[in-house]
Design a protein that fits this description.
The chain has 434 residues and is α/β, with parallel strands linked by helices. The protein is built from 15 helices and 24 strands. It is globular, with a radius of gyration of 22 Å.
């Protein structure tokens, strides 16, 4: 089983280029099958989630071709009949974004049969709001044996839909289905994340009529058909935030390229509160920290608030700050599973309800660790890079779901980190790293 082995204690310095946004890519790749024309999508992150979704898309009859590692050509013309609209469980059981295929297939073909989504175990992610939206548009939905959802409609008709809670997944899924529905759909209390805007922009490039993405009211006027398009995905704000936090935790100096600084404001402001220096450029940010880190308070909120996907990374850095910090998680109820791993490294953290109370320590100590989910795994990498001594991190398949060439990028910044698959390789790494 592959694992990371890391020698910590080295300030990371240099430049790193951020990949395309995974969360935007998953919605955009699903949307690309809604036309019989060819779509060319650039800046696709080469991570396991996108690779698996493309395999699933190919399995139902679409043509998928990599022009290069980050450019994908998709043509959905070969998707035909209900038998071709059943998405195989083996392809997508481990990724949450499988549910975007429901909205895409339902919108174009008025039928979808998709396995219920998996992904990281960070708490309840019900799809009741997705179902509410589909049924409001006129679809009939049913959960069938084997954990599949079947959605079908004679035709879809636009409707006013109010989401009881802000949901990124439901907003995108309803937007996909409504793009080809008859008449006008309004989504109120819609999510406002940058990847919502990116999916809407891609659909509009294909000929959809969507207005208001990025606000809490999205208006969609259905069109008869979508056409092919070429599109480039926005940079990944969470990968960028992860390297920003890594610079602070290791007392480094990193120039993070290919970013949209506006998307990073909630992260930048908290790092500045901790005493880091954050310099914004047109498409890059530089993050530096060489002094004592200060404590602060964080509460995760829907965009433009502090992102839940950065909670674990920031808590890791706060574990090295003076004083007491409080991190409150308001999005998912099971997102502190990494805390026990940090405690093994010497962190002083206790969890009370949906808050983590963090008393800063002088340093972490290397340990054997296991990644409980994607973002927590990235946080453990940050902890290991800042720690004294060596660490190993198992279950790195979670991290590989969302970070492209993570170990290579860390090494380019001077970090000592490799992927190994045996204890003998761990020992060889330790001898080389010294």
């Amino acid at each position: 089983m592959e694992q990371y082995v890391i020698k910590g204690g080295i300030p990371l310095e240099g430049d790193v280029v951020i990949a395309g946004a995974k969360n935007a890519a998953l919605g955009i790749l699903a949307a690309a099958i809604m036309t019989d024309d060819k779509c060319v999508i650039e800046n696709v992150p080469y991570v396991s989630d996108t690779v698996v979704l493309l395999r699933a898309i190919e399995a139902i009859g679409a043509t998928v071709k990599y022009r290069d590692k980050h450019t994908v050509e998709i043509c959905g013309k070969g998707i035909r009949g209900n038998d071709g609209l059943s998405v195989d469980y083996d392809y997508i059981r481990n990724i949450r974004a499988s549910y975007y295929l429901i909205g895409a297939l339902l919108g174009k073909y008025k039928y979808a049969d998709v396995v219920l989504p998996g992904g990281c175990d960070i708490g309840s992610r019900p799809i009741d709001l997705h179902v509410k939206g589909f049924e409001a548009l006129g679809a009939r939905t049913n959960i069938v044996f084997g954990g599949r959802i079947v959605a079908e409609a004679d035709h879809l008709v636009g409707k006013h839909i109010y989401l009881d809670t802000v949901s990124v997944g439901a907003t995108i899924n309803i937007m996909l289905a409504a793009a080809l529905a008859e008449g006008k759909t309004t989504i109120e209390n819609a999510a406002k994340e940058p990847h919502i805007v990116d999916v809407a922009n891609f659909l509009n490039t294909m000929g959809a009529n969507i207005k208001g993405a990025g606000t809490d009211v999205i208006r969609i006027r259905g069109v008869d058909r979508l056409h092919g398009a070429e599109y480039s995905i926005i940079p990944d704000q969470i990968e960028a935030g992860t390297f920003m936090t890594m610079a602070v935790a290791t007392r480094g100096n990193i120039l993070i390229k290919n970013v949209i600084p506006k998307h990073l404001e909630a992260i930048s402001s908290k790092l500045a509160e901790m005493g880091a220096t954050v310099i914004e450029y047109d498409d890059a940010v530089r993050v530096m920290a060489d002094g004592v880190l200060k404590s602060t308070q964080i509460k995760t909120l829907p965009y433009p608030g502090f992102p839940t996907d950065m909670q674990a990374q920031m808590a890791t850095a706060l574990g090295l700050a003076t004083g007491t910090s409080i991190v409150t998680e308001s999005i998912f109820e099971n997102r502190f599973r990494y805390v026990s791993e940090l405690i093994r490294m010497g962190a002083q953290i206790r969890v009370e309800g949906n808050s983590a109370i963090i008393t800063g320590v002088d340093h972490y100590t290397g340990a054997r660790l296991s990644a409980p989910d994607l973002r927590a795994g990235a946080a453990l990498v940050i902890a290991a890079l800042s720690a004294d001594g060596f660490s190993t991190i198992e279950e790195i398949q979670f991290v590989q779901r969302g970070y492209e060439e993570f170990d290579e990028k860390v090494r380019s910044l001077g970090g000592k980190m490799e992927i190994v698959s045996s204890e003998r390789e761990v020992q060889k790494f330790k001898l080389r790293a010294g």
